[in-house]
Design brief:
The complex is a heterodimer of chains A (609) and B (152).
Chain A (H helix, E strand, L loop, with lengths): L7 H17 L6 H33 L16 H25 L7 H7 L6 H16 L7 H18 L4 H20 L2 H13 L4 H22 L15 H34 L7 H15 L8 H9 L4 H21 L6 H25 L9 H17 L2 H12 L2 H21 L4 H9 L10 H5 L2 H4 L6 E3 L4 H7 L7 E5 L5 E6 H4 L12 H5 L6 E2 L5 H11 L3 E5 L7 E6 H20 L9
Parallel strand pairs in A: 1-2, 4-5
Antiparallel strand pairs in A: 2-3, 5-6
Chain B lengths: L16 H33 L14 H16 L6 H6 L1 H14 L6 H23 L17
Classes of the chains: A mainly alpha (609), B mainly alpha (152).
Chain lengths: 609, 152
Amino acid sequence: MIRNEWSLVGLRVRWRALLRGLRRKNLRNNEVALIVASAALGVVIGLGVIVIQDLVQRIHEVGFAIPAGRHLSEGVAPDWWRVLLLPVVGGLLSGGVSFLIRRWRPREIVDAIEANALFGGKMSLTDSANLTILTLISSGFGASVGLEAAYTQLGSGIASWCGQNLGFRRGDLRTLVGCGAAAAIAAAFNAPLAGAFYAFELVIGNYSPAILAPIAMAALTGTLVVRAISGEEAIFGLDAHVRIAGIDYALFAVVGILAAGLAIATMVAVTRIERLARRQDMPGWLRPTIGGVAVGLVATIYPQVLGSGHGAIQQVLENALPWGILVGLIAAKALASAVSVGAGFRGGLFSSSLLLGSVFGGAAVIALQAVLRQLGFADIELDRIAYTLVGMSSVAAGIVGAPLTMIFLVLELTGSFLATLGVMVGVIIASLVVRLAFGYSFATWRFHLRGVPIRGAHDIGWLEDLTVGKLMRRDVQATSAGTTIGEFRQRFPLGATKRVFLVDDGNRYAGIAATADVHNPDLDDKLDQPVGAALRVAADQFLLPEQNVRVALGRFINAETETLAVLDGIRTFRVVGFLTEGYALRRYNEELERSRADELGDRTLFGPA
Amino acid sequence: MGARDPLAAPTPPERSDDVGVKARRRRLKRMLSAVLLGCVVAAYTLGALGQRVIAEDQNDLLPVPLEALLLGMAFAVGSLPVAWSIIGRIMLPVPSFLLYFTVLIGKNAPLPFYAAFALSGVYSAALTALARHLADRPVRSKLGTRGARGPA
């Protein structure tokens, strides 16, 4: 018999009481509280990452009958029919679950980047859990996607939920979402620096000393939990005794350029396949099944494409594979990942891009060595591991859009500063080429295709919150456009109001008349003329309550006026308020200052308000 | 504006230069896509052929890289948005079936004969169908071109 105080209701009551207590302690103004919260979150998220990894490994071991402790992408699945069939089953399951979730919650799931850019760090924990389940199904049944999307979504979702419950400020909530992602990536790769910089580059969008402590603390505790439970080994075992000479740095730049091309081609391929799948006359829930058929077909020849690809990366790093197989694996992995994501499996391209890049690096070093021999430099011996690492990090930096993360990831995996120097060259070149030639990372490319107006995690959500409806004044003075100047002067004497809004017979907006203009002595002999005919301005310029302040300021410039009417809609045309340019500018400036101060973590940056 | 002379010859529909430029660019893009995908097919086939470990399945008529290259070229030609791309598509099914059949029965952990036969058929059909899809040209002419004559 469960005692009453430990029942579900009892726990909920205790939880709420705890939250009330914490809120009363005014944690939102306490920097130490933020750091403590981020450390606790790191522990929870580290445990979450272990649970997800373990679950997926169990599904692989049972479903594909692989030996315990081995990776699916090592190609150790003994039965061809499992390799062919399970991605199809996964597609059916993923499509079905996705269909049910969409019926239950018919909206796009907000990820950490979108939440920080548009919603001040607010994420739904339920949506995050749903996406985690879908990614778990996708990766568990062999789709060629990584689990990092699930880790970061769950980590950020938990962090956001905690922050919202504790009443954290907008800026702190965004930082906490970054902490969630940092802990998740740090725990996934056993690499705290990579995790922290993943948050700085992708989830928060900038680095400042004020956010360093919470982000680093979350990444550190996440890593420590994984090390305590799963051991201290790096995710890829690597004997990284690399040899790099002067010419290598020039060749790393060449690898970086080619890696950028591969990254762009992969991102575009995902979109093309997605469009192709959507054009077919079939229900949406069936698309992942078709994708599963394609992945299964590819995997019968290239089993390395199954799952996230960590085992295959290890193989590529350990063994010098023939050039033909490497080239084939590049095509197969790019195709399988693009088909998986394009067909509707959930998951990211973080791990996939690492495998794609490592295979590409392995192929590039063989090709470059052959070219050097042809050119008469037979004595120059290129280091296979160094080029594999450069290829891996360059392609991943191009696709993920996080160059520093990839540099630190290699540093933490290898512990070799020499390898990191080489990687730095390739990564910088690849990131630059992708930015100049394409302009997006995979995440921002997806936002672009969905019509979400963001290019990163920089907070622009406040702009959408600052609407005309919130800024406008409602004390509108209105009169008919047919009112004569004489009547107007009687009704609105000088000093009573600055402007009067004119409306037609149907009470629809017809322009603005400035009271001072109507009282101009030059008009004394035209007292019987209607005001609307002689003195109205801005009759075709107006604002709507849902427009944001930036649109409003643009409209002021176009209208060349200082006041604009706010109408309830473009059909009804009724005046519900007005907005002045001076007030809009002042509020815009205030919010800009606040946003900048939040970013830099110094609320007194511009002095007292 | 004066009324149009009913006896005058019909004027051809106006077409801006921009339409022509865009059409050429679109065509070039499709050609490049076909060539790029041909390279992908060649690379994929090269890697697949390299996975054969059973000696009897490696006694090919041509060197392996050449076989992969020819298959990639056939796919690229078959994917071009031109009328004669059918030549490429005619050349695709049988060689691709045979090559992938040798891969599936000759790789490490080979597939049973029936499965290899069926899957290489699927591979062959998929490659041909994809080439057909990429080569697909609009049946109706674009608006504003001379060929746009509907039923009277």
